[in-house]
Design a protein that fits this description.
Elements lengths: L6 E5 L1 H9 L6 E9 L5 E9 L9 E6 L4 E5 H4 L5 E7 L6 E5 L2 H9 L1
Parallel strand pairs: 1-4, 1-6, 2-5
Antiparallel strand pairs: 2-3, 4-5, 6-7
């Protein structure tokens, strides 16, 4: 996990544009959900979203971009993420969303480690 200074998120140009065009008064979180399926396997889902009223702030660790934009990262994901990682935009049309920008090994560690 990261040191005392927290995680550094590095948005690419598409992510910076998305953040500017989607301002939020809420802190954004990198949520990590694990669901077990009937065969015993697990399905991991990572989303970048606004913090909700039902989120427990104690389950997150701090992260920010170089410009100071604050993010909170689910502690389970934080244990598997590098101290510095990218943000990008994926999807088309109304399904465009902010997402993590990790290499194959990074995604493997996050989802299957």
């Amino acid at each position: 996990m990261s040191g005392a200074s927290g995680f550094l998120l590095d948005p690419d140009a598409k992510a910076r544009e998305w953040l500017q065009s989607h301002p939020s008064t809420k802190t954004r979180v990198i949520a990590y959900d694990v669901h077990r399926c009937c065969g015993g396997g697990k399905i991991c889902l990572v989303t970048v979203r606004d913090m909700s009223e039902t989120d427990d702030p104690n389950r997150f660790v701090a992260g920010s971009t170089e410009d100071g934009t604050r993010f909170l990262i689910d502690h389970r994901a934080a244990a598997r993420l590098p101290v510095r990682f990218g943000l990008t935009v994926r999807g088309i049309g109304p399904l465009r969303h902010l997402d993590l920008d990790l290499g194959a090994e990074g995604w493997g560690t996050l989802l299957y480690g």
